[in-house]
Amino acid sequence: MQLLLLLVAFLLAPKVEAGKIIRGHEAKPHSRPFMAFLQIQNPNKTCGGFLEHKDFVLTAVHCKGSSIRVILGTHNIKEQERTQQVIPVRKAIHHSDYNPKYVFNNIMLLQLEKAHLTAHVSPLRLPKRSAQVWPGMVCSVAGWGCLSMNSTSGAWKLHEVELEVQRNKQCISCYKLYNGTTQMCVGNPKKKKSSFKGDSGGPLLCNMAQGIVSFRKTDGEPPRVYTRISSFFHWIERTMRCFSLQGPD
């Protein structure tokens, strides 16, 4: 009997560990009321994002599609929670200098049909212009992405993980065209923790939103590249102001 139990434990261990390696652990339900789950069509995929204003969600450009539906106030995306708000996107506004080949300027605003702010749906403040993030700083990221490198589908419940900011040279050695001015290098390569498939567009929190999940190596190993939000502060403010004044189409 002991031998059988040891064999079962051995077979199950890698599967359990895989979930912890990539995603960390399940987040406390509704502890991140700014999180947005994006359902995208053409191409069909999912992404993350975060509510920055009652009318706008911030995400990554490669999360665009022919139509996008945003779900706010959710923890388990497979359940119809009373806190959920399903909101269509009026307009997707991506950075005009986005470069899909090198993934530069990977930032996009989604103008919504106005969210209703509640205890479960509230915006996340952006960093001040003077806010700094330094190597070794511990930040966190959350999303509904894959729980392991072998997964083909995302998680139903929101998961979160703590990650360390790395020196720029760590990403320069992995990504030849990495730009430390507009990008951030995050995730200790010695610790198998990382955001993964389906987490793109979600916020990196270092006390406040400092990064947006951008891209990774194909094997999912850290470090991963994040868009540095502080470098796009003026673009975000200018774009929201411009499209807010335009009103409905």
Descriptive notes:
GO terms for molecular function: serine-type endopeptidase activity. Residues 21-241 form the Peptidase S1 domain. The chain has 249 residues and is an alpha+beta fold. The protein folds into two domains: 22-28 and 126-231, Trypsin-like serine proteases (Thrombin, subunit H); 35-123 and 232-246, Trypsin-like serine proteases (Thrombin, subunit H, Beta Barrel), CATH 2.40.10.10. It has three helices and 13 strands. It has helices at 2-23, 168-172, 233-246; strands at 25-26, 35-41, 45-53, 56-59, 67-72, 85-94, 108-112, 138-143, 159-164, 183-186, 203-206, 208-215, 224-228. The strands form two sheets. It has a seven-stranded antiparallel β-sheet. It has a six-stranded antiparallel beta barrel with strand order 2-3-4-7-6-5. It is globular, with a radius of gyration of 18 Å. Mean pLDDT is 84; it is low at 1-21.
Topology:
Blueprint: H1 2-23, E1 25-26, E2 35-41, E3 45-53, E4 56-59, E5 67-72, E6 85-94, E7 108-112, E8 138-143, E9 159-164, H2 168-172, E10 183-186, E11 203-206, E12 208-215, E13 224-228, H3 233-246
Antiparallel strand pairs: 1-9, 2-3, 2-5, 3-4, 4-7, 5-6, 6-7, 8-9, 8-11, 10-13, 11-12, 12-13
Protein name: LOW QUALITY PROTEIN: mast cell protease 1A-like
InterPro entries: Peptidase_S1_PA, Peptidase_S1_PA_chymotrypsin, Peptidase_S1A, Trypsin_dom, TRYPSIN_SER
Pfam families: Trypsin (PF00089)
